[in-house]
Amino acid sequence: MQTAPPKRHPDHTSVAVLMGGWSAEREVSLSSGEACSMALKNIGYNVTPIDAQRNLASVLLDLQPDVAFNALHGKWGEDGTVQGVLETLQIPYTHSGVLASALAMHKQSSKELFAAMGIPVAEGKVVEIERAASTHPMPLPYVVKPVAEGSSVGVHIVDNGSNAPPEDLLKQRDLYGPKVMVERFVPGRELTCAVVGDVALGVIDIVPQVGFYDYKAKYAPGGSEHVLPADIPQDVYRKVQQYSLGAHQALGCRGVTRADFRYDDTPGSDGELILLEINTQPGMTGTSLVPELAQHAGHSFEELVDWMIQDASSDR
Q: Domain 10-95 belongs to what topology?
């Protein structure tokens, strides 16, 4: 994290913390926003929490904040849409800009860029939701996920014992849309690494306590155990950091991101490491990974959010 003198003094800086919204990750966003609001208030910023709705532009025009702290997750808040609103209003904001946010949120587009950069990804494809619900679109085991969602929302693992694909996909069309992504399932460990500015932090080995690292494991207290630093070979540890920074830079991300990986260390495997996705609006709750990684690097939660305010800008 940068140590340059602050360009924004808390006593003279008003911050609008955007949270909530209407995506599938609304509740997590509210938790992130509340935690960040409290930390910013503790530092001394003039903070206004905003449960972002479709009238956000007019709310911000009336408020005229110096900075918008984007604590939104999921569609609209993480896919470049609200970033476009903030660019139009010329309000400096945190995290990535319009293009990087849109690319990161669309899993197929980001995977193609990662592969072009030499970052390993799992083979996959986008198929019509009807096809995914009626036949196995690729050999077992595989994963079905929304093309553009985060926080493991709507992720299904179709394992070797599955006689049929997940038919309940059709009951969740509002979540998935007309198409879904299917990709080869990679067994082994779930690893994650955060990038702050141009620095890759440590690597966490996530051990879910409820099957796999789904939405519940991410956000429920006790849903997962975090091993930091991850007990993995040093060359793998360095590759995770290298790929995290490479993915961040490949998409043109700004501020803070988090990259998620699978590392296959099962008996007889060749130690395959693949990048699952990059999160441009990682969680900032009490159980979130980025604050834990920052703490391990010697930076308090208050120092982290303060850095994000100092880093905020428009034209990102």
A: Rossmann fold (3.40.50)
